[in-house]
Write a structure and sequence with these properties.
Elements (H helix, E strand, L loop, with lengths): L1 H8 L4 H32 L3 H30 L5 H32 L7 H32 L2 H11 L2 H11 L1 H16 L7 E4 L2 E8 L3 E6 L4 E5 L2 H4 L3 E2 L7 E9 L5 H13 L4 E13 L4 E9 L2 H22 L19
Antiparallel strand pairs: 1-2, 1-5, 2-3, 3-4, 6-8, 7-8
Helix pairs in contact: 2-3, 3-4, 4-5, 5-8, 10-11
Length: 354
């Protein structure tokens, strides 16, 4: 009987291992439930965005991390430290810990985004912070994944020996990789430069390659621009070091828009100016800051009239330009149809041919 009990319930028996394993999982899940229940109750009493996001993003990784931590601790009492089981659990712990760090980064990103709203009063400053945050998060993700993989490999003796062998020729490998990855390295350097010098920011309205759009994302290697017709223009970061582009919202989104009308010298400009102010007064897209209509140029046949007005952003400016242009032309057609540009012919009857 004692031999039977020793076989099934001894320190090294498979039944003991399974029992300890299940106990660690159950206790770990119970601890995780208790911790998150306390955090949830505390958030209900004193709600905050940080606690809400921690509950949201850490719930899944914590479900595995605490049981794995207890299993690893239990293995120390009856197994060899360098056994295969320890190495496997250590690798799972490292992967799960990296998962928790990345989840924490996502939670912190949401908290910062809530604090720096793009539509707030300090729009340019907030968009700078969000762009830097996006880039720093991408770099941090790469660093976490790299360190996790390195830690797992370093924990395996065979891989460690292989790594030491590879390091003896690291100089040659570094040169080869550097030559092969010149463009990737240039993109990474351009990414750091763009994140902190800020020629482009998230939500900037730009004209690139003749396309008008909004900067949707800035990653480690490329920029995504959402064009006016919802296409995505994807450009490598080093493109912006070699090519000029127009940023309509570099410091602020407010913009002055222009509409040009060409009319005959006989046209009454003052009447059109009154109509222009009346049109703007009925337009919700006008921000009521700038409105003017001037004669900006003349030639032997026509006058050039420039109507200028301000809007809160370039998209509103585009739509309002189209509307104002249409209504001004409609007013001229209806009230002064004879004042559009004319081509006057010379009286050839008085010209004698030699």
């Amino acid at each position: 009987m004692d031999a039977l009990v020793s076989e099934f319930f001894g320190e090294e028996s498979w039944l003991t291992h399974i029992t300890v394993l299940l106990a660690c999982i159950v206790v770990g899940l119970a601890l995780r439930w208790a911790i998150f229940s306390v955090l949830r109750i505390y958030n209900q009493k004193k709600p905050s965005i940080l606690k809400e996001q921690l509950l949201k993003y850490l719930r899944r990784p914590a479900k595995f991390f605490i049981p794995l931590l207890l299993i690893y601790s239990s293995l120390l009492f009856y197994s060899e430290l360098n056994s295969l089981g320890h190495k496997f659990i250590e690798a799972l712990l490292i992967v799960n810990f990296a998962w928790m760090l990345m989840a924490l980064l996502q939670a912190l990103e949401v908290v910062v985004k809530e604090k720096f709203q793009i539509n707030g009063p300090n729009k340019a400053k907030e968009r700078k912070v969000l762009t830097q945050l996006r880039f720093i998060k991408s770099v941090a993700m790469v660093v976490i994944i790299t360190l996790a993989i390195a830690s797992i490999l370093w924990n395996i003796p065979a891989a460690r020996e292989l790594g030491e062998t590879i390091l003896t020729s690291a100089g040659i490998i570094g040169i080869i990789v550097g030559v092969a990855a010149q463009k990737s390295i240039a993109n990474l350097v351009s990414g750091f430069q763009m994140a902190f010098t800020q020629p482009l920011k998230i939500d900037d309205q730009v004209v690139i390659e003749g396309e008008f759009g909004t900067v949707e994302d800035v990653t480690l290697t490329y920029v995504v621009v959402k064009t006016w017709d919802w296409r995505r223009l994807v450009l490598p970061l080093n493109y912006f070091n070699d090519h000029p582009f127009v940023n309509w919202s570099f410091n602020s989104k407010d913009i002055i828009n222009s509409v040009f009308i060409y009319v005959d010298y006989s046209f009454p400009v003052a009447e059109l100016r009154k109509k222009f102010i009346e049109i703007l007064g009925n337009e919700k897209l006008w921000d009521k800051r700038v409105a003017d209509l001037l004669v900006t140029e003349v030639d032997e046949r026509t006058m050039q009239l420039r109507a200028t007005f301000s809007t809160k952003n370039a998209s509103a400016g585009w739509n309002l330009r189209c509307s104002v242009r249409e209504k001004l032309i409609g007013f001229i057609q209806e009230s002064y149809p004879d004042t559009f540009p004319k081509i006057r012919r010379m009286d050839t009857d008085s010209v004698e041919l030699q």
